Amino acid sequence: MRILSGIQPTGELHIGNYLGAIKQWLELQKNHECVFPIVDLHAITVPYNPKDLQKNIIETAISYLALGLDPEKSIIFVQSKIKEHTELSWLLNTITPLSELERMTQYKEKSRQFKKNLNAGLLNYPILMAADILLYQTDLVPVGKDQEQHLELTRVIAKKFNNRFGKTFKDPKALIPKEGAKIMALNNPKKKMSKSLGPQAYLSLFADPKEIQKKIMSAVTDPGKTIKYDPKKKPGISNLLIIFSLFSSKSIKELEKKFKNKGYAEFKKELVNLLILKLEPFRRKKKGLESREVYVREILFQNTKKAQVLASSTMEEVRKNMGLI
Ligand code: ATP
Ligand code: LTN
Fold this sequence. Notes:
Layout: E1 2-4, H1 15-28, E2 33-38, H2 40-43, H3 50-67, E3 74-78, H4 84-93, H5 98-102, H6 105-113, H7 120-135, E4 140-142, H8 148-165, E5 173-175, H9 209-217, H10 235-248, H11 252-258, H12 264-290, H13 293-322
Parallel strand pairs: 1-2, 2-3, 4-5
Helix pairs in contact: 3-12, 4-7, 7-8, 9-12, 10-12
Bound molecules: adenosine-5'-triphosphate and L-tryptophanamide.
L-tryptophanamide binds next to helix 7.
């Protein structure tokens, strides 16, 4: 099976990105052909600074390697290096209903957030994402819950194309984890943890012990004292319970029992210790790679060549089927 998933180089990767997506990637790369573009063309649909973008692209590549993505097994590259992504995106534009794009939740949210910079790219964002996926004849797309709607739209686009021009694309499916598909922000457990919500909202996967302590101890919790999983009434502590459970491989039930007569502070202290232990290897590995940018760029370069072969092959078929010379 072919697996594909992307992350925008918009800042530091956080535990939400890991639990929702990257943890699955690490499992999948053991037995499947995986393609992991760093989707820089998606990142420019919101206001950004070109210098920061360049830095973030390399940072994301370094982070991928530090987290354990293996460039011998998985194809890690920068989306904009393969022109076929934009080419296919344009072609898919011509068959995508405007009404589908306008009802996308991410578009509605981001267009509210960036009222002053409402560009067409933000609306067409899911078409570029569909192009990423369909270009590589993807079977499975491991993502967090927030991307489910975009995946459904990708399938609609693929079906429409295949009906109109003959079978060209595979029908890709979303792979969303049962637990951890939507980790909430530490400073506001009613919002999704996001890179773009600012550093108080997320815990970086490369945070040092001091930062882990500060962020977790000050994470917003709920009135009351009991450590109980109840996302509606106790969103703060429920979010921390999910994080604890997924990093410790203990069930939520087990944790509720363990912390039955204990308060939030004690629970948080144990979570801090757990996260220090689990995140330490990531931080160590990233530090080592930071001084090896030439090596990282070489990996991206070599992997781009592999991606290019796959992308060119699909595009040849697409052009032929659409009647382009
Ligand atoms: P941005 O703030 O720039 O939109 P983000 O932090 O929301 O960034 P993305 O680059 O949009 O991250 O997402 C990368 C991957 O991580 C996607 O598969 C997405 O579904 C997943 N993901 C993002 N945030 C979370 C979260 N809070 N919980 C679980 N999965 C998440
Ligand atoms: N829209 C996604 C990022 C993304 C993606 C993809 C995910 C772009 N192209 C292809 C999976 C497959 C997001 O997380 N915001």
